[in-house]
Amino acid sequence: MSGFECIATEVLENATIVKFVDQRVMNPARIESLGRELLSLVDATSVTGIVLNFEGVSFFSSAAINKLIKLESESKKNGLQLRLSNLRPEVRDLFSYTNLDSLFQIKDNQIEAIESL
Amino acid sequence: MESTTQHWRYDDHIPSEPDCCATIVGMVLEQLEKNGWGNKDTFGIHMAMEEAVMNAIDHGNNRSPDKTVHLVIEICGDRFYSKITDQGEGFDPAKVPDPTQEENLEKDCGRGVMLIRNFVDIVLYNDKGNSLELTKQNSEAKA
User: Fold this and answer.
1) Which of residues 108-127 of B touch A (CB under 8 A)?
2) A58 in Cβ contact with A22 (< 8 Å)
3) pTM for the complete prediction?
4) Is CATH 3.30.750.24 the right assignment for the domain spanning A7-115?
5) Tens digits of per-residue pLDDT, A44-97?
6) Looking at the domain assignment, is residue B2 inside a domain?
7) What is the spatial distance between Cα B27 and Cα B74, in angstroms, rounded to a whole number?
8) Per the CB < 8 Å rule, is B114 touching A97?
9) Which of A27, A29, A98 sits opposite B111 (nearest CB)?
10) Is B96 on the interface with A (CB under 8 A)?
C-alpha cells in the first residue's frame, strides 16, 4: 500500500502490518494525518487483522492514543482484530497507567501478534 | 565532586499554536539531556509538558490567535519546574472524569490530566484552573 506519510504498511500472512514513520508521535498535524491513514486500513477485506508495530517509537502522546482508540472501535465494527506489538517499556507503561491495556491486545513482538489473530 | 549542571530558565509567552508546543518541548528535551537527566525521567517530563502545554493551547485558549500561553521553565541537574498559564476561563481538575474507568476508556478527554499527574512529582493548579505548576526531581541525581 502506498500514499501514506505517517505509516508504512505491508501485508503478512493474514494481517496488515503497520509501522510508524515518526519516532516521536506528537505533532498535532501529523497525528491528524496518522488518524486518517490508520482508519483507511479498516476497509481491507483480505486480512483478519491489523498489527501496529511500535518498533522505534519512543514517544506517543495522548492525542495519538485517542486515534488508536478510534481505530480499535472502527476495526471491531468491520470485523477486524487489532493488535499492538514491540512497545518500548515506557510506551507500554502508558497503556498500563491509562488502563488501556484492557482495551487493546498488546503483544511482545510482531510474530506473537500475528499468531494471535 | 565537579558539578556538571547548568541552570536553564525560560520565561516567555507563546502563541496558541500547536507547533509552538513542539518547539518548546524540543528545547526542554535538549536541556534535560545537557543536564544529564535519564531516559525514564525525560520521558515523563516530555509527556507532562506535552499534555500541559497542549491543554493550555487547545482547551484553555481554544487555539485563539488573540491568546497566548505564558511558560516559565527551570531546569538544572536535579530539578525540573514549569509553570504553564493560559488565558482561558479555567477548569476544575477534580471534576475531570477518571479516564481509567471502563465507561470512560473510549472517550477522548481526561487522559492528559491524569498522565500529567502520573509523570511528575508535584502538580499544583491555581484556584481558577488556568495555571498549573509542575515539579519533578531527578530520580537518578546523586545525593
Assistant:
1) 108, 111-112, 114-115, 118
2) no
3) 0.87
4) yes
5) 778 899 999 999 999 998 889 999 999 999 999 999 999 999 999 999 999 999
6) no
7) 12
8) yes
9) A98
10) no
* B 30-49 near A (Cβ less than 8 A): 39-40, 43, 46-47
For residue A47, give the DSSP letter. -
How big is the CA angle at A112 (ends A110 and A113), to the nearest 5 degrees?
60
Burial class (CB in 10 A: 0-12, 13-18, 19+), B35: buried
Alpha-carbon gap: A16 to the closest alpha carbon of chain B (Å): 23
The mean predicted confidence, pLDDT, of chain A is 93
Q: Is residue B143 part of a domain?
A: no
Q: What is the mean pLDDT of residues B114-142?
A: 94
In a domain? residue B128: yes
User: How far off is chain B from A104, nearest CA to CA, in Å?
Assistant: 11
User: ipTM score here?
Assistant: 0.80
**Residue numbers of the domain that contains B67:** 8-137
